[in-house]
């Protein structure tokens, strides 16, 4: 079985667009449509024919380019069923456990409510790829616009169950700001400190910090560590419910200005 190719491109102020291509079948999906012109330019540059848009959630920087991209390519639009009324051009609404395919490659849909009520992610376990939209970021997680902290913690816990070598493709380059907050709550984490230095060097040369490995997030992302005794103790929340610790971490980030 051939390996999927992922083409990543920066667009808007801090979004990443992704084209996922299966050389065997020629099928190509784009994850969200942050910027229709950028998606179409990336397709033209690669010479790839777009088969489908896979939306993660309804925000304009994720689905705002749907109609223009669909109009130019005739592709199918796959999107979370719970948000299909708010996403332009949906052909196929999907729910937890549904599969979407690129040639012979299967991606599983997982529901990860919290950032929005119907947010979904796309996971290809044999290839170790996860397209997580605005649920999990490198060293961070999405803001709670439509869900509760308890919901988001359950969603992140679901992602923690993926294979540690999974490559996590998130939708924004927020990593350096996330690192500052992570260090403010988990300053004793040596692996986090080393990662923050590596991130600063990567950004200094203008390179992306995305994707990251899930194993690295498990060790250094505070939002995946709400049940970690050392982090709980550092927050003065020893033995608290993980969802309550997560709520504190998320609220702290919302008001963090470091
Ligand atoms: Zn969003
Ligand atoms: Fe976004």
What do these coordinates show?
- With 258 residues, the protein is an alpha/beta fold.
- Helix content is 34%, strand content 23%.
- It has nine helices and 14 strands.
- It has helices spanning 36-46, 60-63, 66-73, 149-160, 175-185, 190-204, 214-220, 229-234, 242-254, and strands spanning 5-11, 15-21, 28-31, 52-54, 76-80, 92-94, 99-102, 105-111, 120-124, 129-133, 136-137, 140-141, 167-170, 212-213.
- A six-stranded mixed sheet has the order 1-2-3-4-5-6, with helices on one face.
- A hairpin with a 6-residue loop joins strand 2 (15-21) and strand 3 (28-31).
- Helix 1 (36-46) runs parallel beside helix 3.
- The longest helix is centred in the last third of the chain and has 15 residues, at 190-204.
- Residues 59, 61-62, 134, 171-172 line the site of fe (iii) ion (FE).
- The site of fe (iii) ion has 6 residues, from helix 2.
Protein topology:
Elements: E1 5-11, E2 15-21, E3 28-31, H1 36-46, E4 52-54, H2 60-63, H3 66-73, E5 76-80, E6 92-94, E7 99-102, E8 105-111, E9 120-124, E10 129-133, E11 136-137, E12 140-141, H4 149-160, E13 167-170, H5 175-185, H6 190-204, E14 212-213, H7 214-220, H8 229-234, H9 242-254
Parallel strand pairs: 3-4, 4-5, 5-6, 10-13
Antiparallel strand pairs: 1-2, 2-3, 7-8, 8-9, 9-10, 11-12, 13-14
The protein binds zinc ion (ZN) and fe (iii) ion.
The site of zinc ion has 5 residues, from loops.
């Amino acid at each position: 079985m051939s390996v999927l190719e992922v083409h990543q491109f920066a667009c808007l102020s801090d979004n990443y667009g992704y084209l996922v291509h299966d050389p065997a079948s020629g099928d190509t999906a784009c994850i969200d449509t942050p910027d229709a012109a950028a998606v179409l330019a990336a397709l033209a540059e690669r010479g790839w024919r777009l088969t489908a848009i896979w939306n993660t959630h309804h925000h304009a920087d994720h689905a705002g380019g749907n109609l223009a991209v669909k109009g130019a390519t005739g592709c199918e639009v796959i999107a979370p069923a719970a948000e299909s009324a708010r996403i332009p051009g949906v052909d196929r609404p999907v729910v937890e456990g549904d599969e979407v395919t690129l040639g012979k490659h299967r991606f599983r849909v997982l529901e990860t409510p919290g950032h929005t009520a119907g947010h979904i992610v796309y996971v290809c376990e044999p290839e170790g790829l996860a397209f997580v939209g605005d649920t999990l970021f490198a060293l961070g997680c999405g803001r709670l616009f439509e869900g509760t902290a308890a919901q988001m913690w359950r969603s992140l816990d679901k992602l923690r169950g993926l294979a540690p070598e999974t490559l996590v493709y998130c939708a924004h380059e927020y990593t350096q700001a996330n690192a500052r907050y992570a260090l403010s709550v988990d300053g004793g984490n040596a692996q986090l400190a080393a990662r923050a230095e590596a991130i600063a060097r990567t950004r200094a040369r203008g390179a992306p910090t995305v994707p990251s490995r899930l194993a690295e997030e498990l060790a250094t992302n505070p939002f995946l560590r709400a049940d970690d005794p050392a982090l709980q103790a550092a927050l003065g929340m020893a033995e608290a419910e993980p969802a309550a610790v997560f709520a504190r971490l998320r609220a702290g980030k919302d008001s963090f200005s470091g």
